[in-house]
């Protein structure tokens, strides 16, 4: 079935990484299987960070191996550096994303690398991928994180984001992504950033956006992204992970609500909303007490309206 918008489910990575309690590997695999069965075309299943820094992701290779058995699923992962990329390739990921924080302060605090050092690391990643046989080479995306603003630095100049996208393009990344890591973004800012990157790097270099709903702007930004022509939107089931500094706010935009909006607009996601809502039970059982968000889950699917499934 052909789809108009690819929803990339990032809950097993972005949602879980901010939760202390470790979700058992079997439950992660059950979640991924169920969400694939509901029609999700792409899932970011884990992160290849050092296990001692993030025990939640220690089983990333096992989870990728399981996800690879689901025929037709694009298996995405996140890596912080070349070492993580090597592990992701060995595990068999189809798509790898490395976050590159547009706030240098955030970058130093997060991965202890300034911008020059991150660009050098990205260059090493591209050089490594050149040695990987085509059949095993994942698509390599650089996620421009904190592109809309940073909790430490505050506003991030748009000219810097566009310049960094150009540098990354010149280094040979397959694509860049725009990430509103902190939930600072607004739709007009998204349009300016997208148009700036498209004119500097080429339209093909930016197709995906990673939105958070920290300040309730997630779906407004998602609508702008769709109208601009973005084809991949990240979201997480139940907005898992929440936001540590905004109680009651979901983390990523909520997959169920995003599917509802897109399908109600007549855009095909390939996802069966009823089956998707049922997947929440797996999270509730494996992570009891962990808040799950979502207006559609709370209000229900209106009778006789909407999703074509
Ligand atoms: Zn995120």
Describe this entry's structure for a reader:
The chain is built from twelve helices and eight strands. With 309 residues, the protein is α/β, with parallel strands linked by helices. It has a single domain, classed as Aldolase class I (TIM Barrel, Alpha-Beta Barrel), CATH 3.20.20.70. Strands 1-2-3-4-5-6-7-8 form an eight-stranded parallel barrel, surrounded by nine helices. Helix 3 links the parallel strand 2 and strand 3 (74-78). Helix 2 packs parallel to helix 3 (60-68), helix 2 runs antiparallel to helix 11 and helix 8 packs parallel to helix 9. The longest helix has 16 residues, at 115-130. The termini are close together. The model has no long low-confidence stretch (mean pLDDT 95). Zinc ion is lined by residues 14, 181, 210, 212, 252.
Jot down its keywords.
8 strands; 309 residues; eight-stranded parallel beta barrel; TIM Barrel; binds zinc ion; 43% helix; single chain; alpha/beta
CATH class reads Alpha Beta
User: What's the arrangement of strands in the largest beta sheet?
Assistant: 1-2-3-4-5-6-7-8
N/C terminus separation: 11 Å
Element-by-element helix/strand order? EHHEHEHEHHEHEHEHEHHH
Compute the CA-based radius of gyration.
Answer: 18 Å
- Mean pLDDT rating: 95
Describe this structure in a few short sentences.
By secondary structure, the chain is α/β, with parallel strands linked by helices. It is 43% helix and 14% strand. The site of zinc ion has 5 residues, from loops.
Layout of helices and strands, plus pairs?
Layout: E1 6-9, H1 11-17, H2 25-37, E2 42-47, H3 60-68, E3 74-78, H4 82-91, E4 95-101, H5 104-111, H6 115-130, E5 139-145, H7 158-171, E6 175-179, H8 187-201, E7 206-210, H9 218-228, E8 232-235, H10 255-264, H11 273-286, H12 295-299
Parallel strand pairs: 1-2, 1-8, 2-3, 3-4, 4-5, 5-6, 6-7, 7-8
Helix pairs in contact: 2-3, 2-11, 3-4, 7-8, 8-9
Zinc ion (ZN) is lined by residues 14, 181, 210, 212, 252.
